[in-house]
Design brief:
Layout (H helix, E strand, L loop, with lengths): L1 H32 L9 E2 L6 H7 L16 E3 L4 H14 L2 E5 L19 E5 L6 E4 L4 E5 L4 H11 L3 E2 L10 H6 L7 H4 L6 E7 L5 E2 L1 H4 L1 H6 L10 E8 L1 E2 L4 E8 L2 H14 L7 E3 L1 E7 L5 E11 L3 H11 L11 E3 L1 H8 L24 E8 L5 H13 L3 E7 L22 E8 L5 H17 L30 H27 L15 H13 L1
Parallel strand pairs: 2-4, 3-4
Antiparallel strand pairs: 1-2, 5-6, 6-10, 7-11, 8-9, 8-10, 12-15, 12-16, 13-15, 14-15, 14-18, 17-19, 18-19
This protein binds flavin-adenine dinucleotide (FAD) and 2-acetamido-2-deoxy-beta-D-glucopyranose (6 copies).
Length: about 550
């Protein structure tokens, strides 16, 4: 007994020491290679008093505050591209792994935690690399990946009140993860995804080379505009084509609490939301509240953006969607940049400086779990009733329907890795937030979300049941311990990208990173692992 504890301790100490040894050799290598641009002040080891605050600064889901997954041995905060090139070369040489983090919004914490406990890893934290260069003559934005969406919106508005970038609705989300994962926002029906507007990109590959679109080639460029950056390299910047927006747009957000009304409105929403004028985006969100009698009831909200003025909007709504009951007085006209704040939940009149804040809105600072689905056809009233009943039975369920259609129908499903275009009515997002701490509470809420998802099966896409890659969900499958097996990868891969695009991503990966240095629990596997899979079968047996 005592003997086995001793053996265990010795084993533990030797693993620990070799990990420290790896880290120290890595730092040495980095120091030597970075003589021209010294690494002073950019490397944080766990024995440094600032390590914890740097580590936590970009954990956007407190669910992972106390995670039992492997944590980084180092955080590197590059201030120069050469730091990244050297970090990759030294990491390969000394057996370190890495995770690139930009905004830290990954729903499953993959940019700062790892399932691999045998290989030490560092976080490459990109927050220092966030320059934004807006060129109004060319109508472009050259943006380093550490910038947040809010910073980009703010810098565009500094130069022009008639330009915008179609991207996500949360200002603290960063360009790196968001744009390499597709980018969904409230102008999608008019302009498509953020990736549909990317013209060029800079990436550092597994050999430490800095490449642009021309030198990386169209296949790799295609892959990093929707297949995620983390499987292919470190993306330094994207060049976006800006879009033209009117000087004034119109925002409204209606709330309805009578379930009969809601069922009727939802019924009509399913008929029109993806067919309305492309300038109009009406989101539909349901959650459960207690009414004055203390009885559980469903509440619906409709946060919406119209790229035009109130009078045009009213005539459209009266013609196409009178059931919603929109009034002139519900509508607020404002500049597009103001609408990005208001849509994110800030009160009308909030100073634009709020877009520059890199810290999370406090209400979001609670543990959460998110899942997604794609809706191909309307859900009947009867179906919605059963969904509402399920929501009331479960804990803290919130369901949002995001309309598609419009421009999305005009772009081929092979143009970018994201395949959920024509034929989709809406993207569904399931959100569960909770306040209680501890794993017991967490497991209850996770279970609730999974039961809700199960209940939705008859209403949503099937074979495959599609999912949105930017809404990362480890329930869809995981590649453990860096194996990145083709068979395991295919399980989540076909759901995020469908078969044709997934296989194309696998081919790109196999060529540009054949030894799978850039990996994570939901990375793109190489085709080589397909042969390995069958080989290792006999090994295991
Ligand atoms: C509050 C909130 C609101 C959101 N709203 C939206 C929305 O409106 N629309 C939408 O589409 N999505 C939305 N998302 C999802 C979001 O787009 C993704 O979580 C996205 O991946 C976040 O990017 P990030 O850089 O902030 O996250 P990170 O956690 O830093 O990165 C996410 C992934 O990308 C990789 N990565 C990051 N930067 C790079 C890089 N430079 N090179 C290579 N790989 C990189 C990471 O390694 C990780 O795998 C939201 C998320 C949250 C938490
Ligand atoms: C912690 O690391 C940072 C970044 O390398 C460095 O600037 C700082 O001096 C270190 N602090 C201590 C107490 O060593
Ligand atoms: C802190 O940790 C780093 C990385 O392991 C190591 O190189 C350094 O010597 C440590 N510093 C102290 C004061 O222990
Ligand atoms: C998570 O940790 C950070 C840093 O320690 C802290 O600021 C935050 O309040 C924590 N959140 C929760 C929900 O524990
Ligand atoms: C609203 O916009 C329409 C179309 O651009 C325009 O014809 C109309 O004059 C505008 N109405 C007001 C009140 O500004
Ligand atoms: C959870 O916390 C949020 C934000 O602090 C608060 O608005 C909400 O009422 C709380 N919910 C419950 C069920 O306690
Ligand atoms: C993490 O642990 C700390 C200390 O036990 C606790 O205060 C905190 O609430 C926990 N955070 C979460 C998100 O569970």
């Amino acid at each position: 007994m005592t003997f086995s504890i001793l053996v265990f301790l010795l084993l533990f100490i030797s693993i620990k020491c070799s990990a420290d040894h790896v880290t120290d050799s890595f730092i040495n290598c980095l120091t030597i290679r970075s003589r021209n641009f010294p690494i002073t002040g950019i490397v944080y080891a766990p024995n440094n008093s600032s390590f914890s605050s740097v580590y936590h600064a970009y954990i956007r889901n407190p669910r992972f505050n106390n995670s039992t997954r492997a944590k980084p041995s180092l955080i590197i905060t590059p201030t120069h591209v050469s730091h990244i090139q050297n970090a990759i070369v030294c990491a390969k040489k000394h057996g370190m792994q890495m995770r690139t983090r930009c905004g830290g919004h990954d729903y499953e914490g993959l940019s700062y935690l790892s399932f691999e406990d045998t290989t030490p890893f560092f976080i490459l934290d990109m927050f220092n690399l966030r320059s934004i260069d807006i060129n109004i003559e060319q109508e472009t934005a050259l943006v380093q990946t550490g910038a947040t969406l809010g910073e980009v919106y703010y810098r565009i508005a500094e130069k022009s009140n008639t330009h915008g970038l179609p991207a996500g609705v949360c200002p603290t989300v960063a360009i790196g993860g968001h744009c390499s994962g597709a980018g969904y926002g409230n102008m999608i029906r008019k302009f498509g995804l953020t990736v549909d507007l990317i013209q060029d990109a800079e990436l550092i590959d597994v050999n430490g080379r800095l490449l642009d679109r021309e030198s990386m080639g169209e296949e790799l460029f295609w892959a990093i505009t929707g297949g995620g950056g983390a499987s292919f390299g470190v993306i330094i910047s994207f060049l976006f084509k800006l879009v033209r927006v009117p000087p004034q747009v119109t925002f409204f957000n209606l709330e309805r609490t009578s379930e009969d009304d809601i069922l009727n409105i939802a019924n009509n929403w399913f008929q029109v939301a993806n067919k309305l004028d492309n300038n109009l985006f009406i989101r539909m969100t349901f959650n459960v509240i207690n009414n004055i009698e203390g009885i559980k009831t469903v509440r619906a909200t409709f946060p919406s953006l119209f790229l035009g003025n109130t009078s045009t909007l009213m005539s459209l709504m009266n013609k196409c969607f009178p059931e919603l009951g929109l009034q002139d007085s519900d509508c607020v006209e404002m500049s597009w940049v103001e609408s990005t704040l208001v849509y994110a939940g800030f009160p009308v009149g909030t100073s634009l400086d709020a877009l520059l804040s890199r810290s999370q809105q406090s209400e979001r600072d609670r543990p959460f779990k998110i899942k997604s689905d794609f809706l191909k056809s309307p859900i009947s009233k009867h179906g919605m009733e059963s969904i509402f009943n399920k929501m009331k039975e479960l804990k803290n369920q919130m369901i949002t329907f995001n309309p598609l259609g419009g421009r999305m129908n005009e772009i081929s499903e092979f143009a970018k890795p994201y395949p959920h275009r024509a034929g989709n009515l809406a993207k569904i997002e399931y959100e569960t937030y909770w306040n209680d701490t501890g794993t017991e509470a967490e497991n209850q809420y996770l279970e609730s979300t999974r039961l809700m998802y199960e209940h939705m099966t008859p209403y949503v896409s099937e074979n495959p049941r599609e999912a949105f890659f930017n809404y990362r969900d480890l329930d869809l499958g995981v590649n453990y311990n860096g194996e990145n097996s083709y068979e395991e990868g295919k399980v989540y891969g076909v759901r995020y990208w469908k078969e044709v695009n997934f296989n194309r991503l696998v081919m790109v990966k196999s060529v540009v990173d054949p030894h799978n240095f850039f990996r994570n629990e939901q990375g793109i596997p190489t085709i080589w692992s397909k042969f390995q899979d069958s080989a290792s079968f006999s090994n295991h047996g």
